[in-house]
Amino acid sequence: MTLESTITRFAALAPFLYLAAVSVALAIIDLDTHTLPNRIVLPAYFVGAVLLTVAGVLVDEPTRMSGAFIGAGALFGVYFLMAMVYPAGMGLGDVKLAGVLGLYLGWLGWGQLAVGAFSAFLLGGVFALVLLVARRASRKSGIPFGPWMLAGAWLGIFYGEQIASGYLSLFGLA
Q1: Residue 18, Cβ neighbours under 10 Å: how many?
Q2: Residue 53: partners with Cβ closer than 8 Å, 6 or more residues away
Q3: Lowest CB count within 10 Å: 113, 118, 135, 142, which one?
Q4: Longest CA span, the chain
């Protein structure tokens, strides 16, 4: 392995190592306080964009950033709409985190973006149902959604392409 290929591989890995660190911190904080602090989420936009841009250039795919920005805008927009329609159900911290996750998922591809976005609701919904069945929560209980957004995003990062193509092939679309 040459020094150039080592640098290229690290450049592609670096943004996701940063996201991993941010994910751990945000999940722990959200579980404890039901907040996603701006001092962690907002810099993640800039740091993520810079690291993903460098990675895109070094892996010779600079056009990935268009997908990243579209993904960030799309997830931010969907979550913002949900927060405006039902403010008690979704906080603005979730909205801001959605944009960051959309940046990373969109950089990887549409399958990863779709799976990462949907998985958050699936995982969070299953968790909420378990709490309801176990009578540990009621329909009015506040459940932090950030950890499920992060878990869904990581599911999309690692398995999004395979899950999306498997789903589409069920309907003869892939």
Answers
A1: 17
A2: 62, 65
A3: 135
A4: 57
**Residues sharing a CB contact under 8 Å with residue 78, sequence separation 6 or more, in sequence order:** 98, 117
Helices 110-133, 146-170: axis angle to 10 degrees equals 120
Q: In the chain, which ranges are continuous DSSP H helix?
A: 3-33, 38-58, 64-85, 92-108, 110-133, 146-170
Q: How distant is the alpha carbon of residue 83 from its chain centre?
A: 17
Q: Is the overall model pTM greater than 0.85, yes or no?
A: yes
- pLDDT by residue (tens digit) across 94-142? 999 999 999 999 999 999 999 999 999 999 999 988 988 888 877 777 7
Pairwise CA distance, residues 139 & 134, whole Å: 12
Distance of alpha carbon 50 from alpha carbon 68, whole angstroms? 11
* Cα–Cα distance, 147 to 161 (Å, whole number): 22
Per-residue 3-state assignment (H helix, E strand, C coil) for 139-174 = CCCCCCCHHHHHHHHHHHHHHHHHHHHHHHHHCCCC
Q: Which structure tokens are listed for 36?
A: 């996603």
